[in-house]
Amino acid sequence: SPSLLTPDQERAQAIAVAARMRDIISRRLQSDSLKLPTLPEIAVRCLELAHNPDVTFSALSQVIERDPFIATRVVRMSNSPLYGGLNRITTIDGAVSRLGISTLVSLLQELAAEQVFISRDPTIRNAFRGIWEHCLGVAHLSRDLAAMVGHIEPNTAYLAGLFHDIGKPIVAALLLE
To answer: Is the pLDDT of residue 1 over 60?
Structure first.
């Protein structure tokens, strides 16, 4: 029969495993051998443009049009019940205008974070889907709470909520290795 660990033994074992994982991740980061998803070049360019106070919706639209995946997501979001108006949007210009820069930036950040939770393996993909949906929920709640509190920038709170579990799939991938 398997022996049961005492709470102190379980805690010691958990601390040892966490230290080992920290060492593995640190070594992989230092050797540049930890594969982390990257933000598409178009998304990076859009985020750079969005931080320019003189940027126009048209300039952002021209960049977004070069990436069909991002363009589709932007148009789809602009027509979602949350942002949809009376008229259906079919152009990138119209979608960017409807969403606005702040929402567009949030969407691009979501696309970056979402890449971490995508796997080719259907079992892993399904397991990560729940974590991803949780991250989105926490992000939206964090932004709303920050807006109510007033002294925390809502988009910063949104990012914190979005990325709060980002390490889980990275550690899971290392464990599978």
So the answer is: no
